[in-house]
């Protein structure tokens, strides 16, 4: 068999397996399959016995199942988000998570290993990339490609990323915000900062402590952010009833918070994101910066849904700012589109690795 036959053989195998694009996010992992769309969308969470890195339930306490177990048996088990800060905190746990998700999607009916494209935060090290790559292979992938998250986001958002014109993507996730300027299918300038949705939640927790002597949990903080949080005033101001524990009496109580005070609380993380964007713009080559006057900035990731974030970024940069369609699935859709064009794009994309 010559090389061409091998390629065709690989295509043939493709009929028996389900090629998948995976967005390995700090908060959520999504799997997108061509023709089927998003087939898996679960929290990037693993349940382990406290003090160990042993994944419970024979390696299956991952995603929604991990969340469910945590609710039922608090105390002895604990939740780990292995990619929380955009770096891999524990290789074994990351591998268990990735392998569970790949098996869950591929295991349904197929016999052959899938080809997988995995998007990874651009800040992870070569060793971490290698670990993700090896995990995918061990989980049964026939061929694995890694791409940097901003590239996947740009593809998913429909940006002209292979053309000789600059485009800029800001992907605000849970643990990290990735800011990148791309041209000719390559990243020209990028920055990954560890300020994103989690820090917004934390800012709200701190605000509740300071202002009301009230402890609230992470999920409550996230709900406040999503329901009434904003980066700039858009529409009418609102309020929300919040329940938590009084820090002095130790007893449960309720209080009302306003959208203005939440916006004030979110100012610090929002400013850090704005700073990352302006820094990246300042570092861009003049020709690329010039293109952005016409092309503007595109926002992706869950943080793009924070009310008014487009407005403050427009005010800070003077550029047009647009939110990608369905920003939470943008990266996953990008990885699946990349997989479809892999023969055409792979030679020009340095970042997909044969590590
Ligand atoms: N409507 C919303 N407003 C503000 N933040 C949101 C909204 N929806 C989701 N988020 C936040 O987006 C983050 C998750 O985004 P995601 O892109 O899935 O992250 P990652 O790619 O790091 O897994 C979380 O911090 C979540 O609270
Ligand atoms: Mg993401």
Describe it.
The protein has 3 domains: 11-44 and 81-152 and 331-348, Nucleotidyltransferase, domain 5 (2-Layer Sandwich), CATH 3.30.420.40; 165-195 and 268-327, 2-Layer Sandwich (Nucleotidyltransferase, domain 5), CATH 3.30.420.40; 198-265, Actin, Chain A, domain 4 (Alpha-Beta Complex). The strands form 4 sheets. Strands 3-2-1-6-7 form a 5-stranded mixed sheet, with helices on both faces. The model has no long low-confidence stretch (mean pLDDT 90). It has 355 residues and is of the alpha/beta class. The radius of gyration is 21 Å and the shape is flat. β14, α12 and β15 (321-323) form a beta-alpha-beta unit. The protein has helices spanning 3-16, 56-59, 64-72, 91-106, 126-138, 149-156, 197-212, 218-228, 259-265, 267-283, 286-295, 309-317, 330-340, 342-345, and strands at 20-24, 28-33, 37-43, 46-49, 77-80, 115-120, 143-148, 167-172, 177-183, 186-193, 214-215, 239-246, 252-258, 297-300, 321-323. The chain binds adenosine-5'-diphosphate and magnesium ion. Magnesium ion binds at residues 23, 25, 149, 171, 173, 301, 331.
Secondary structure elements and their pairing?
Layout: H1 3-16, E1 20-24, E2 28-33, E3 37-43, E4 46-49, H2 56-59, H3 64-72, E5 77-80, H4 91-106, E6 115-120, H5 126-138, E7 143-148, H6 149-156, E8 167-172, E9 177-183, E10 186-193, H7 197-212, E11 214-215, H8 218-228, E12 239-246, E13 252-258, H9 259-265, H10 267-283, H11 286-295, E14 297-300, H12 309-317, E15 321-323, H13 330-340, H14 342-345
Helix pairs in contact: 4-5, 6-13, 7-8, 10-12
The chain binds adenosine-5'-diphosphate and magnesium ion.
